[in-house]
Amino acid sequence: MGIVRVLPCVEDWLNAEAESWSPLPDRDYVELVRRWREGFLPLIAAGTASFTGNRAMQVIAERLPADVWLFSGVQVPKLANTGGLGAAGYHATGLRNMRRELANQLELIAAVSNLSWSCVFSHEAGAFVWECLYELSPQVKIVA
């Protein structure tokens, strides 16, 4: 049995809002999480400036459609993200719309395919934290 679970509500969203999508196999999920942690956890820990809340959602909307990773199972305590329902991951091609409420409910992390930006969602959004969108500087290289 694998570690990556299926999230039917995410699959319904992707069926409606993406050109195509695929679930991540365990190995690809583990590698994506490793690369994401390497690039973004230092920014979060350092309190790097980010877009938050409505502004984060506006910036994402301006960047869509895009090829995006959507995944959960990564705890980001500083942003009140407890990992959601556990390990789940998808790659969406041509994602046209970010479903904010669902992404927050599931505590997803969304990242553009080249990992130049990423947004962390939390079930606490609007109460204790906001969605936070971080951008990697061009000098940061994430080893594939």
Give the low-pLDDT segments.
Answer: none
Strand order of the largest sheet: 1-4-3-5-6-7-2
> Any idea what the shape is?
globular
Main sheet record: 7 strands, antiparallel
Q: What is the CA-atom radius of gyration, in angstroms? A: 14 Å
* Structure classification: alpha+beta
**How big a fraction of the residues is strand?**
15-25%
Query: In angstroms, what separates the terminal alpha carbons?
Result: 26 Å
**What series of H and E elements makes up the topology?**
HEHEHEEHEEE
- Give helix % range: 25-40%
Overall strand count:
7
Query: How many H/I helices?
Result: 4
Average pLDDT works out at 91
* Oligomeric assembly: single chain
